[in-house]
């Protein structure tokens, strides 16, 4: 009895995406091929890996246990390939990472690159996605993790996450005639979404803090100086999520992607995405 690595990769993609359609997008297969892979894995093990929950298919306890083993097997497989293919990953490797995800992703990113490209000279540039994207397009970066619109066709999808309004528990957005905001600079999609929503609902607002640093935005929120718009996993621990009942409409979800320049090694990009998807999916809201 042998477990097929390609089928295990599909199973992990299903766990990360939460659906067969989402998994198909991650592994570049059709939804029917995803279903076939999952069925074959269940046949090999003689145990059901999926169960129906309402209208959705979810992993069974055995399915979740197999995902845990599959992540380790795929990581070891990637390390073995990287060991023998490392010469092709030599030279400089310039990587961009948004400030938002430094706490969650800096260590996994560097660890994965050390395994996959041990002979490369790695340079990491931390900046907002709006600044990293043109650097990638101009060939000044090889890889970058970026925030993107939900329906993006750009790069490998690592995670889709809610974007929320947040403020200090003592901040009352309805009491302010003109809503004070702490936001990233122009070009940030969160800023675009927030100001568009407020204009649509004719809500007076004023940007009182602009920073490319997530800790600065979070500090302004914690101090009660302003409300902000962040990915749900970036809400400060001592802040709250504001709701439509408080006069602030829901915002679109953000998709976190791994994007690459045309000159980047596609095998490296694929394996790096596989190794980062797990840490990204384990991000949780406070």
Automatic annotation (TrEMBL):
One matching Pfam family, short form? HTH_1
Q: Where is the HTH lysR-type domain?
A: 3-60
Q: Which InterPro entries match?
A: LTTR, LysR_HTH_N, LysR_subst-bd, WH-like_DNA-bd_sf, WH_DNA-bd_sf
Which keywords does this chain's UniProt record carry? Answer: DNA-binding, Transcription, Transcription regulation
What domain of life is recorded for the organism? Bacteria
Which Gene3D superfamilies does this one have?
A: Periplasmic binding protein-like II (3.40.190.10), Winged helix-like DNA-binding domain superfamily/Winged helix DNA-binding domain (1.10.10.10)
UniProt similarity note: Belongs to the LysR transcriptional regulatory family.
| Name used for this protein in its record | LysR family transcriptional regulator
Look up and give the organism this protein is from. Pseudaquabacterium pictum
